[in-house]
Amino acid sequence: xxxxxxNEESLIDKLRGIIREGKQVSKLIFKxxxxxxxxxxxxxxxxxxxxxxxxxxxxxxxxxxxxMEKLRLLLPVLSRNRLCLSWESRKxxxxxxxxxxxxxxxxxxxxxxxxxxxxxxxxxxxKYFEEIRSPRREVVLRIIEELIDAxxxxxxxxxxxxxxxxxxxxxxxxxxSALIAELKGGGIISPYIVPGLTKPLNEAEKKLFREAPIYxxxxxxxxxxxANE
Length: 229
Description:
Layout: H1 8-19, H2 23-34, E1 39-41, H3 42-49, H4 57-71, E2 75-76, E3 99-101, H5 104-116, H6 121-131, H7 140-150, E4 156-158, H8 159-168, H9 176-185, E5 189-191, H10 203-210, E6 214-217, H11 223-227
Antiparallel strand pairs: 1-3, 2-3, 4-6, 5-6
């Protein structure tokens, strides 16, 4: 819910600056995230879009959902491969019965945004790790900061990076898998399925692939962080 001290229109303008999209797309994304729900249907999104425009409804919905999927703000519940839960495998079907979910940390970061106008990943991650009562909640922010700095193309990390930083912050090897599960459960990372290679790997890519599995950081969560670099 938008607080009295933070005007809705100013929040939409701020969101527009963060995601770098047009006014109507930003407005629909704002409305979808403002529902305060972890999941919603395509039919519900149509209803929200119809409050913004009366013409070109399909175009607004399609563009907005593709932006949300790309940034990992919202994802289809089902993947093309039911055995694979990676974000990359979840492709939007523009059908009334399609169901979507909003990652846990995106719910937290947007609730904070509604209250303060700040897009603060640290508060969102802290809230999630306190919510699940993780024994790693005191050091997880420092670990994620290190992963952001080391990520290939600002997005991709591997298991070796996570293990290295766990060691750095005194988390034993026996707890690395538990931390990875917590990061995945919160929508902070997702397994990344490497597409077929069409060109030779550079040294950075070889280093990334050397210690698979590879994970993708949630782009939306760290948008403000990357914009400040």
